[in-house]
Amino acid sequence: MEAGENQQVKLEINLTEKYIAFDRSKALTPGAISYRKAKLETIEKLKILCDTNSLEVFIDEGKMAFTNTFFFSSPESSVILENKCSGQINYSFWEIRKI
Q: Which candidate, 15, 13, 14, 11, places its Cα nearest to that of 24?
């Protein structure tokens, strides 16, 4: 991954094929596992916490959890949530403010 390239991390939820995956192959994570995938039957409640360099996922009050760090060198960076499920997802977004 070169500085200046479009960098991203992606969290993918697929209930049809029953998995959740985290892909940080397009981020600066030297020596880290770039792709993680886990079997997933259903989701009743999903909580995602994301800041500048980490993403934490808690499924059904912690029955399954992912924690991943990532680093970007480019302002053209993004975190993507890809929903491959049928139905509606309700979410809330909170901005972190400096104290």
A: 11
- Per residue, the 3-state secondary structure of 11-77, as one string, reads EEEECCCCEEEEEEEECCCCCCCCEEEEECCCCCCEEEEECCCEEEEEECCCCEEEEEECCCCCCCC
For 35-74, the pLDDT digits (tens) are 889 998 888 888 888 877 788 888 888 898 888 887 777 6
pLDDT > 70 fraction of the chain, expressed in percent and rounded: 74
The closest alpha carbon to 6, from 80, 72, 82, belongs to 72
* Largest Cα span, the chain: 43
- Side chain identity at residue 8, one-letter code: Q
Q: Say if residues 72 and 28 touch (Cβ distance below 8 Å).
A: yes
| Cα 69 versus chain centre, distance | 10
Q: How much is the pTM?
A: 0.70
Q: Is residue 48 within 8 Å of 88, Cβ to Cβ?
A: no
